[in-house]
Amino acid sequence: MLNAAPVVVGIGLWWTITTFVLVQPRLFPPPQDVLAELLRILSNDGPLGPTYAHAGATLLRLLTAWSIAFVIGTLLGVLAGRRRLVFDFMANPVWIAMSVPSVVWVFILLVLFGIENIVPVSALVLLLTAPVFLGTAEGVRAISKDLLEMCDSYHVRGWQRLTGFYLPSIASYMVANARVSFAYGIRIVLIAEVIGLPNGVGILVAYWSDTLFMAPIVAWGILLTAVGMAVDLLVFGPLQRRIRQESELSR
Amino acid sequence: MIPKVSLDNIDLSFPDASRPDGRKVIYEDFSLQIEKGSFTVLLGPSGCGKSTLLNIINGLLKPNTARGIVIDGTDLRSEPDLSRQMAYVFQGPRLLRWKTLAENAEFGLRGLGVQPREKWRDLIDKYFRAVGLGDAQHLYPHQVSGGMRQRASIVRAWVNEPQILLMDEPFSHLDEITAAEMRRILTNLWTSEEERRTIVFVTHDISEAAQLATDIIMLTPAPSKICLRRKVDLPWPRRMDSDEVIAVEKELRHAFAERAGIGF
Ligand SMILES: Nc1ncnc2c1ncn2[C@@H]1O[C@H](COP(=O)(O)OP(=O)(O)O)[C@@H](O)[C@H]1O
Ligand SMILES: [Mg+2]
What we know:
heterodimer; A: 251 residues; mainly alpha; MetI-like fold; 0% strand; B: 264 residues; alpha/beta; Rossmann fold; six-stranded mixed β-sheet; four-stranded antiparallel β-sheet; binds adenosine-5'-diphosphate; ATP binding (chain B); Phthalate transport system ATP-binding protein (chain B); transport (chain B); ABC_transporter_ATP-bind (chain B)
């Protein structure tokens, strides 16, 4: 209940300001306008066709990019975690890639591919792979030398070493990586989409921004935040707790 | 004597910044033969290079130079797969916590590529029962005691039916009573088999050496030399407190004082 208090106070402030100080509902929409837009979105009604189709397209891009990034980042991270040389070779480019603003990546890829679905997806992949890579490499480097030596002495290599040893060893890191990269992805997916694709939430946001209507944009923001929080709370949170419990149990 | 393992003229040093020449010499022109079917105990003080020696035999560590690292007449360096006939038991159990004891044993079987796979189930069952863990094999490491974990790690080695068992102070972190029981389990297992496996067992515990060995090789502090080599022809099972075992132990203590310069 105490957690809800700041939210209630915030909404109260928001209402007060937009009703008495900044009375410009198009640019500074009061909470009830945003709520109305939220309900409109949820009733599948919008300016550019059914909103669910747009949300679905965005979600699909996010999930595709996130899955690809997770697999690539994890595999590269395992390689880099095992070999200092590979890590040193890759760490700087990865940091640079992470530091370049997402919009810049989108435009670079736009020049390379034109307006295609591959642009937002690959921009997301690029951006999401980096934290997964770094987290995985850190996890692999934390594996005990004793267990590595045990694997070596029993000739555990290749697929068995990856799936039977490295991945279970870094399970808690993997959940953390998935969590961080998903949260990151849901924050930047719209930026990657604002490039004139035929669908996606990014296009809707661009549309409303062009027509100077803020209420739907705020509504989408709230919706995405809610989805992000729900996934975190319902999927990643319990998963991470379970894995932590298991590894503590066997300490 | 038929050497199962023969190390010929090994040189090994590690970088060590605290020394004037920047290196710590562990072995210099070191040679060692281990007889087939023997229970060879390498006895030496901590840090003399016993684990290092097992790692060389297993191919995990390459010496700086060596004339030969010969297993069954073939050099390990030209035939690295020879180390698939060996299995390692470490000081700690080194089990994977996300696998049951039986799955841990299977992990080793898969790694060493023991054939045929259909036999794995039976092998696992057989050796878990042999060490008294028939019922516990489906538990996870954290659900069993330290002694049981170490027994499971012995099974992980033994299920491969390796020709050579490398054991690195496997009981040194157990309490004395558990360790005594483990020694009994180990020697029972070893003597129960028609054709005895070659065991290379590392310890710094003199009475353990006297109780277990058919062959004792005593090492000096690094740079390590063999300062005593002796057979122990006592029947099995041996009692720790039997006069014969205690006599061997006494002799070893003397030898340590005189030849390795370590008194007790
Ligand atoms: N990888 C390594 N790098 C540097 N020094 C090492 C390494 N491994 C072992 N040593 C050193 O070599 C010596 C012998 O080690 P080890 O074989 O583990 O001794 P023991 O098993 O007899 O106690 C020790 O002084 C140890 O510090
Ligand atoms: Mg050691």
